[in-house]
């Protein structure tokens, strides 16, 4: 893409979320979308989270993908402090398999939305694809790349055989 400053911020509550959130990173790489990946925690680094959220727009971020597990307050707390759309990814937690993460992200009070994706790897992948779709509304080359991705995916499924 012509732009080189990050357009998408991929943040997560802990380095332990990287196995999941790397799927978002890989998808953004595939579409050559400039992005940054950082650990930011509402619970453990509240000052950093505030700074990240309040400076996101002026730094040029157009979408934030926020992944967290357990009491996953990060996406909602970031959404509360920026106008940049926040896509929440529930990371699979050890104790409750991510149901806690999902409910923490999806049950926002009216007025402060976060989009919420599926638990785990496919949620991270789809959040990135959603970010690509959002950016593609005003970037024709990215729109074409997304259309090609969809067509290739459809061809793959059509050519699959059952043994
Ligand atoms: N949910 C949050 C937040 C937050 O929402 O601010 N910060 C860390 N965490 C989550 O705690 C889990 C366990 O973290 P550790 O593996 O570091 O103990 C991770 O899934 C992380 O996202």
UniProtKB/TrEMBL annotation:
Name this protein carries in UniProt: N5-carboxyaminoimidazole ribonucleotide mutase
A Pfam family that the UniProt record links to this protein: AIRC
PANTHER family linked to this entry: PHOSPHORIBOSYLAMINOIMIDAZOLE CARBOXYLASE (PTHR23046:SF2), PHOSPHORIBOSYLAMINOIMIDAZOLE CARBOXYLASE CATALYTIC SUBUNIT (PTHR23046)
Binding locations of substrate: 14, 17, 44
SUPFAM superfamilies per record: N5-CAIR mutase (phosphoribosylaminoimidazole carboxylase, PurE)
Keywords assigned by UniProt, alphabetized: Isomerase, Purine biosynthesis
Source organism phylogeny: Bacteria, Pseudomonadati, Pseudomonadota, Gammaproteobacteria, Salinisphaerales
Annotated organism of origin: Salinisphaera hydrothermalis (strain C41B8)
One BP term from GO: 'de novo' IMP biosynthetic process
Domain PurE: 6-157
